[in-house]
Amino acid sequence: MKMNGKEIVLSTAYLAPVEYYVKLYHYDRVWVEGFDHYAKQTYRNRCVIAAADGPLALTIPTEKGEADKLLTRDVRISDHGNWRRVHWNAFEAAYRHSPFFDYYADEFHRFFEQRYTFLTDFNDALCRWVCEQVGLQPDICSTTVYEAATAGKEDFRERIHPKKDYRTTDPEFVPVVYYQVFDARNGFLPNLSVADLLFNMGPESLLVLRDSVAAPSLTTKKTF
User: Fold this and answer.
1) Predicted local confidence at residue 151, as pLDDT
2) Can you list the residues of the chain whose pLDDT is less than 70?
3) Looking at residue 68, what is its pLDDT?
4) What HEC string does 20-64 produce?
5) Cα dihedral sign, 152-129-174-196
6) Whole-angstrom Cα distance, residue 44 to residue 39?
């Protein structure tokens, strides 16, 4: 169910959390910001997955720009720390026993073999791939200029943030509980990277995205 034709502005994000993809599902048009000043320690270059010992943050290193304030669209990915192999190994360790990892692994691995120059291109390619796998067809557009006030659009550019509690910043988001590999050890960990949802739920990920929103018509939430 779409949000009555509403539009939303989001930041670019590396395998964004489930909350982000709930927005992709429920809004008629999604604008991804590229003309804001790049900020570190956000989902722009970070995702969080469920490792054996609990949440694990994976961060893409970026090259330092010559200017003090670099536009997000101009941020380049660094090769520092052999991060592609580190991230792939982390995904494999965390999800090799999940129901759908083997099904998606070959295509997913290619993203960590190919060298993207710009962070936004890498994020966008991953996002569109995830959407294709789960049957999600969002209308995603890139901004062409920065607007501090997004008239007529919901502004979630800084509301979906690893240091902010979604229960406060986004009360409409009510995460559905689904199976996770280490839930017997760690309990259910909500709002992790969409990769966690994809590898654990596969095509049924779309149902989780559909139901993870508070609405009068959703008196109960389906638990998988």
Assistant:
1) 87
2) 1-5, 65-68, 215-224
3) 60
4) HHHHHHHCCEEEEECCCECCCCCCCCEEEEEECCEEEEEECCECC
5) negative
6) 8
